[in-house]
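Predict the 3D structure for this chain.
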Amino acid sequence: MTDLPAPLVSTEWLASHLGEKDLAIIDGSWRMPGCGMASDDYRKRHIPGAVFFDIDAIADKSTDLPHMLPPPEDFAAAVGAMGIGDGDRVVVYDDQGLFSAARVWWTFKAMGHESVAVLNGGLKKWLAENRPVTDEATHPAPKTFHAELIPWRVADAAELRAGLKEGACVLDARPEGRFHGKDAEPRPGLRSGHMPGANNLPAASLIAQDGTLKPPEALKKIFAAVGVRDGARVITSCGSGVTAAILSLALEAIGRTAHGLYDGSWAEWGDERNDPALFPVEAGVR
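Done. Predicted structure below.
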């Protein structure tokens, strides 16, 4: 078995390992509400052997917050039914280059599965290189998968609140206009602005034009510019925990592991029903 060059694999690497029995390929494409169903596009074309991971379905059903981490036993049952087992190497991609695949990658990591990577450039780069796709359904045999939550990879509102007081670097991956409260949130019922003390690092700023993650040296400079210091814990956030995972993936790509993702993100923190003393919001440019 060839080791998985995590956290990113190239299209060349994946093409040369297609069909290997212990290699699971996942299409983790996702759409914002009202933008159609990614599963429809998956059925039309996907990398041979890929199964579809529904971010909204494989989620905690006990909350009305969007696509929160599911209980480990639910995650294990879902991915086992998809033909993914404990010893499998997992490669995740999405059809936008680098977007929601990072969320699926982070979910596997949070559930204790270390052998997982994101296809750098995703289906966008794969297609640009005229690599094979298919509309044939994938029906893998079920496998046994065990999941165990890794607590430090996940942050809740209490930890984020404490982190802001204790000097953790909180990075918000939303676009600048939403962070500063100039642009409305895409989900109803949310306040505009950001957590006091958070820094804005739009996820798009980490991605090159071809949909790949920028090189490590460029990423290091970007993170340093927003206050990421050696050894300090970083907490990533965004609108609902999807693009925050791009920041987490980029941190992993430069060798930083002291980071957690605020799963509730702005969908929780920005809720207009919240007590503003517990969930303060700041707008405008500091």
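The radius of gyration is 18 Å.
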